[in-house]
């Protein structure tokens, strides 16, 4: 069913708002093919040959668990149909938050981070697991403990951290994972001068990195004046670098989260003071062919869903907020990423837990934008 969404939400940005765009939703559907598993934190890229390549964390029990693995699906028809998942990496711990980039040389770079934070829930199931899984909790814990016992703490520590994989043959073969200095959920971006830029968090600070050798090695450009949260970047048509971060602010009412922005006009050497740009989080950024910047992000309060904004002035200001989806069952959703097809159509993919189930799905929206 086709419909037009035009919604104005006030008070959600400290930057001057541009006029609200008109969004036409063409289609929304589920694209994950294994309903027995939880899927999370996807990133989609449109390759130079037109293929869409999607990476995400699959094979999971839940939002945090010992079974997460890095999976990939491909669409050769603009997102209408998708291949079955292929496993790219499956460590002994939880493989999460995968990003993907096709470099200017045609190399595919996939990022992820690995964690054994599931032990916190395994050792204290009453806090989260029991309320979620109910009578299934004992059998779930048994499986988790068997998986956890397969490796020592030292082995888990050796596998944890931030990783990248490379493919130089279009995704047929992949390198072993190699360490990188940090991560962001959607991975690095190409710069106009041929370098690759990666705004990363490492648990302690946020750092701007660049690679001059197609993603093999990384050098730090500057510390970013934002928290070491979930970051993503885009380069505007005028060369401005824009980084968004999932920000957290302590208030009297508790912890408030939103998206903040910092910019650089000197190639990443210095950065502006952060400013809030949206109440949702975390943000994925993309530059469309006409130079418009698009940010899409999760909305984890009612009505739950996916929202976005555009900028027509290289990130100096953002439009009022528009809605891509507002019918999700709860907070466990988001991490959208968006690509533009050859005909101008936009494809956004995110994860979302359905009603009465903890097995999150991968959702896709095809839509058009009339700014």
Question: Would you mind describing this structure in some detail?
Answer:
- The protein is mainly beta.
- The chain has one domain (3-370): Neuraminidase (6 Propeller).
- It contains four helices and 27 strands.
- A five-stranded antiparallel beta sheet has the order 1-3-27-26-25, with no helix packed on it.
- A hairpin with a 5-residue loop joins strand 25 (333-340) and strand 26 (346-352).
- The radius of gyration is 20 Å and the shape is globular.
- The model is unreliable at 1-13 (pLDDT under 50).
The helix fraction, in percent, is under 10%
Point out poorly predicted stretches. Answer: 1-13
The profile of the biggest β sheet is: 5 strands, antiparallel
> Which architecture per CATH?
6 Propeller
The tally of beta strands, per DSSP, is 27
End-to-end C-alpha gap: 22 Å
Overview in brief:
The chain has helices at about 120, 130-135, 135-150, 155-160; strands spanning about 5, 15-20, 20-30, 40-45, 50-60, 70-75, 85-90, 95-100, 110-115, 160-165, 180, 190, 195-200, 205-210, 220-225, 230-235, 240-250, 255-265, 275-280, 280-285, 295-300, 305-310, 320, 320-325, 335-340, 345-350, 360-370.
């Amino acid at each position: 069913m086709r419909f037009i969404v035009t919604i104005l939400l006030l008070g959600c940005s400290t930057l001057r708002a541009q006029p609200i765009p008109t969004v036409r939703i063409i289609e929304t559907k589920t694209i994950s093919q294994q309903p027995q598993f939880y899927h999370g934190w996807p990133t989609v890229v449109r390759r130079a040959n037109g293929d869409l390549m999607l990476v995400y964390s699959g094979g999971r029990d839940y939002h945090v668990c010992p079974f997460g693995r890095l999976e990939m699906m491909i669409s050769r028809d603009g997102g209408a149909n998708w291949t079955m998942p292929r496993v790219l990496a499956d460590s002994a711990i939880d493989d999460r938050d995968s990003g993907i980039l096709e470099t200017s040389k045609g190399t595919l770079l996939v990022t992820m981070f690995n964690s054994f934070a599931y032990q916190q829930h395994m050792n204290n199931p009453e806090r989260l697991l029991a309320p979620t899984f109910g009578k299934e909790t004992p059998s779930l814990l048994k499986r988790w403990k068997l998986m956890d016992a397969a490796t020592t703490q030292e082995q888990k520590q050796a596998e944890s951290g931030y990783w990248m994989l490379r493919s130089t043959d279009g995704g047929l073969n992949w390198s072993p994972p190699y360490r990188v200095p940090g991560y962001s959920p959607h991975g690095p971006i190409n710069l106009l001068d041929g370098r690759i830029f990666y705004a990363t968090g490492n648990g302690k600070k946020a750092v701007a990195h660049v690679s001059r050798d197609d993603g093999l090695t990384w050098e730090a450009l500057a510390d970013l004046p934002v928290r070491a949260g979930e970051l993503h970047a885009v380069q505007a048509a005028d060369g401005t670098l824009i980084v968004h971060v999932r920000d957290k602010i302590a208030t009297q009412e508790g912890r408030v989260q939103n998206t903040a922005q910092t910019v650089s006009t000197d190639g990443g050497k210095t950065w502006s003071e952060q400013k809030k740009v949206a109440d949702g989080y975390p943000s994925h950024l993309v530059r469309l062919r006409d130079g418009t910047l698009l940010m899409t992000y999760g909305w984890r309060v009612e009505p739950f869903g996916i929202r976005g904004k555009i900028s027509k002035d290289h990130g100096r200001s953002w439009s009022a907020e528009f809605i891509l989806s507002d019918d999700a069952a709860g907070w466990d959703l988001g991490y959208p990423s968006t690509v533009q097809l050859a005909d101008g159509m936009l494809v956004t993919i995110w994860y979302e837990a359905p009603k009465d189930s903890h097995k999150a799905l991968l959702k896709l929206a095809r839509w058009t934008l009339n700014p």
